[in-house]
Amino acid sequence: MTRKGYRRCARCERNRAERFFAGKRGRICATCKRKSRSQASHAARVQAVYGLGPGEYDALVAGQQGRCAICDGTRRQRLSVDHDHRSGVVRGLLCRRCNGRLLTAARDDPALLRRAADYLDSHPATRILGREVYVGSAPMKRGYTSPALDKRIAD
Ligand SMILES: [Zn+2]
Ligand SMILES: [Zn+2]
């Protein structure tokens, strides 16, 4: 039983106030309606822009378990369709950060990204100087940099 003035949404199965439903017979809440409309228009857009067929964007999302193919991140934002700008081939779904920043900075070059990974694993400064030199007075935890310090260096 649902409380008086409330109705159970047939899609999200939440009990929501009557005002979220259209009319007396509405079965889907306004939030779910808005979501399915925006999903439908997104599907139409990716089909038109990237040449994906009906249901193929959803198939990619499901095949990637809803995760960015690079960082494995699940974000609230929809995953972007990443494509090779030269050949036009659709490569997969990426989060905005990996698609927009990581690949753009790396100029879509796999060899450059492999060199960047090698660089992060083995620091030339340590190899050349024969010792680990630390920024600041005390060794910081690996991977940690202070925002204040970054700003000082950038200025
Ligand atoms: Zn709902
Ligand atoms: Zn990512």
TrEMBL record:
Organism of derivation: Streptomyces cacaoi
InterPro entries in UniProt: Endonuclease_7, Endonuclease_7_sf, His-Me_finger_sf
Pfam families (alphabetical): Endonuclease_7
Source organism superkingdom: Bacteria
UniProt-recorded name of the protein: Recombination endonuclease VII
Record's signal peptide: none
